[in-house]
Amino acid sequence: MEVSEFILMGFPGIQSWQHWLAIPLALLFLVAIVANITLLITFYTDPNLHEPMYYFLAMLAMVDLGLCNTVTPKLLGILWFDAKTISSTACFAQIYFVHCLLGMESGIFLVMAYDRYVAICNPLRYFYIITNSFVVKAVVFSLIRNAVLVLPVPVLAARLSYCSIRRIDHSFCANLAVVSLACEDITINSIYQQTVAWSFLGSDLVLITISYCFILQSVLKLKVEGAAMKALSTCSSHLILILFFYTILVVLAITHKSRKKIPSDIPILLNVLHLLVPPSLNPIVYGVRTKEIKQGILKVFKKTTGFSSKN
């Protein structure tokens, strides 16, 4: 049976008061938008930040903007205006972009880990290895890897025959929540999604861990007083964000396996937070903990306030 639309239920277990969740979620969304746009403007206007490391952060900011805009506007529409209907085309597109952008975020974290590895373990060759050409190749590879290999996920979902029930017990079009409404076997869909997700995110996490093992090994060999702490401080922001990003993924996997023992709204809320908290947290962590970015942001605000005062 062909379906032209689905109905997103938001948080099925707390329908009576789920609209109150719109307030903190809207605030997170606003923070994510303002913080990432501010970061991008800072990178664009400050020549001192036209370096590979900051290009990766700019790419991360763009991915974060895409990630939170893919889900949040519709979610807020559900919570505020009870706008639960979504067309099948928009639903399958949402599946695609969520998976693709999550994979890209993971890929960027991997490249940033390699950047820190070269900077600390092989500093004399850093500017020969981490070049503008390397940045372009890394970004293009991450984009093609995710855009191509994620494509079968929504395509397989769209090819299924769906039953008369169109109610998705979720706050956005999560692939498994959608395909569970099909009238036919979804084993291939499930296997492909799990394979792609764990091969991408799992391999990225393994390589990031290996990079930081080499970094730690190199740092421990430093004899100069304070050199080890200084070297590790350059990685601290990156480590905080990586730990947060992958910890939520692990928690999501555990709650998905234990979904019969816990309320269904918990993994749904965790899914939403995983798409909203990192985009709002990433620019703040780097903005606060990186002196060059902090100075660049202050310059942007001074220019803006100076322009406003003249007018």
TrEMBL record:
<keyword id="KW-1133">Transmembrane helix</keyword>
<keyword id="KW-0675">Receptor</keyword>
<keyword id="KW-0812">Transmembrane</keyword>
<keyword id="KW-0552">Olfaction</keyword>
<feature type="transmembrane region" description="Helical">
    <location>
        <begin position="266"/>
        <end position="288"/>
    </location>
</feature>
<feature type="transmembrane region" description="Helical">
    <location>
        <begin position="232"/>
        <end position="254"/>
    </location>
</feature>
<feature type="transmembrane region" description="Helical">
    <location>
        <begin position="20"/>
        <end position="41"/>
    </location>
</feature>
<keyword id="KW-0807">Transducer</keyword>
<feature type="domain" description="G-protein coupled receptors family 1 profile">
    <location>
        <begin position="35"/>
        <end position="286"/>
    </location>
</feature>
<dbReference type="InterPro" id="IPR017452">
    <property type="entry name" value="GPCR_Rhodpsn_7TM"/>
</dbReference>
<dbReference type="InterPro" id="IPR050402">
    <property type="entry name" value="OR51/52/56-like"/>
</dbReference>
<feature type="transmembrane region" description="Helical">
    <location>
        <begin position="197"/>
        <end position="220"/>
    </location>
</feature>
<dbReference type="InterPro" id="IPR000276">
    <property type="entry name" value="GPCR_Rhodpsn"/>
</dbReference>
<keyword id="KW-0297">G-protein coupled receptor</keyword>
<feature type="transmembrane region" description="Helical">
    <location>
        <begin position="53"/>
        <end position="72"/>
    </location>
</feature>
<protein>
    <submittedName>
        <fullName>Olfactory receptor 56A4-like</fullName>
    </submittedName>
</protein>
<dbReference type="GO" id="GO:0005886">
    <property type="term" value="C:plasma membrane"/>
</dbReference>
<feature type="transmembrane region" description="Helical">
    <location>
        <begin position="92"/>
        <end position="114"/>
    </location>
</feature>
<keyword id="KW-0472">Membrane</keyword>
<dbReference type="Pfam" id="PF13853">
    <property type="entry name" value="7tm_4"/>
</dbReference>
<keyword id="KW-0716">Sensory transduction</keyword>
<dbReference type="InterPro" id="IPR000725">
    <property type="entry name" value="Olfact_rcpt"/>
</dbReference>
<dbReference type="GO" id="GO:0071396">
    <property type="term" value="P:cellular response to lipid"/>
</dbReference>
<dbReference type="GO" id="GO:0004984">
    <property type="term" value="F:olfactory receptor activity"/>
</dbReference>
<dbReference type="GO" id="GO:0004930">
    <property type="term" value="F:G protein-coupled receptor activity"/>
</dbReference>
<feature type="transmembrane region" description="Helical">
    <location>
        <begin position="126"/>
        <end position="144"/>
    </location>
</feature>
